[in-house]
From TrEMBL:
This is Uridine phosphorylase. Signal peptide: none annotated. Its EC number is 2.4.2.3. CDD domains: UP_TbUP-like. SUPFAM superfamilies: Purine and uridine phosphorylases (SSF53167). It catalyses: uridine + phosphate = alpha-D-ribose 1-phosphate + uracil. Residues 30-266 form the Nucleoside phosphorylase domain. PANTHER family: FI09636P-RELATED (PTHR43691:SF11), URIDINE PHOSPHORYLASE (PTHR43691). InterPro entries: Nucleoside_phosphorylase_d, Nucleoside_phosphorylase_sf. It comes from Tenacibaculum polynesiense.
Length: 289
């Protein structure tokens, strides 16, 4: 059975609907950034560039760094965008776009996010790097899929009990990363920890401007959670979606976070651009060593 035109949408030039990409445009080694203007901050280091395009917030450039072919894509903000980007990238490599049928041989993508994030722990300061060993999904996007086999129910149950998690919110799914990218990217310069992925920037991350929170103590309870040494180290808006969909689709993923804020002591980096620039260079070098 071929996938219907309403489900797998292609543009008139054969490219996939939102990303505007055809299979030949991408490498299997991919870097995600949130901000479309961060794509050039990565690719300015490249030896050569073969392709670039942009539709909406999704800017893509493919080229080589240290001789390795890499694709950099901006995802915009949030797990809803990751649902689009990961499903469309997977379709480019694992669905025959002519016959609209899944291919027999699976192609694995290696996806590294280079993002910004806020630390939740006083001992993990601003301007440091963190690789997400796990992600905890606080936004619910992944619950549309069959996630039972990728869940870590012992950590989830401990988290629900520790935080008295509201049943009106989505179930806090925990996903581990695929490990082979972690092995490439980790060093004594990088903290490891569980990243919480929220579905918004203000209330969903415990920020109060004019609206009171459902649970004003939630961030403090998240900070103090510790299950067999697994702590929630930082908050952002994409990692659990990347880890969850990568696991379900058979891809490897790692999330590298430039910590530009510390929510535990209320500090913000004096030069966030430098931390991000340093993380970009660090990640490119590690990926191509
Ligand atoms: C919020 O300001 C955005 O910044 C963080 C969050 O995850 C969210 O996307 O990451 P990026 O800088 O990678 O976009």
């Amino acid at each position: 059975m071929s996938i219907k035109h309403s489900e797998l949408i292609l543009n008139p030039d054969g490219s996939i609907y939102h990303l505007n990409l055809r299979p030949e445009h991408i490498s299997t080694d991919i870097i995600f950034v949130g901000d479309q203007y961060r794509v050039d901050k990565v690719t300015k280091h490249f030896d050569s560039i073969e392709f670039t395009t942009q539709k909406r917030e999704f800017k893509t450039t493919t080229g080589t760094y240290n001789g390795k072919r890499l694709t950099v894509i901006s995802t915009g903000i949030g797990p809803d965008n990751i649902d689009i980007v990961l499903n469309e990238l997977d379709a480019l490599v694992n669905i025959d776009l002519e016959t609209r049928q899944p291919k027999e041989n699976h192609t694995k993508l290696n996806i590294t996010r280079i993002g910004t994030s806020g630390s939740l722990q006083a001992d993990i300061p601003v301007n440091s790097f963190l690789l997400s060993s796990h992600a905890i999904d606080l936004n619910g996007m992944l619950q549309s899929y069959q996630v039972e086999d990728i869940a870590h129910s012992d950590i989830e149950e401990a988290f629900i009990e520790h935080t008295n998690w509201s049943q009106r919110k989505s179930y806090p799914l925990v996903i581990a990363n695929g490990k082979s990218l972690e092995e490439k990217l980790v060093s004594d310069k990088v903290h490891l920890g569980m990243t919480a992925t929220a579905g918004g920037f203000y209330g969903p991350q415990g920020r109060v401007l004019r609206l009171p929170l459902q649970d004003a103590d939630l961030n403090a309870k998240i900070d103090s959670f510790n299950h067999n040494g697994i702590r929630v180290t930082n908050l952002e808006m994409e990692t659990s979606a990347i880890y969850g969909l990568s696991k379900l689709l058979g891809h490897d993923a790692a999330s590298m976070n430039a910590l530009i804020a510390n929510r535990a002591n209320g500090t913000f980096s004096e030069d966030p651009g430098k931390v991000v620039a340093d993380l970009i260079k660090y990640t490119l070098d590690k990926l191509t060593e």
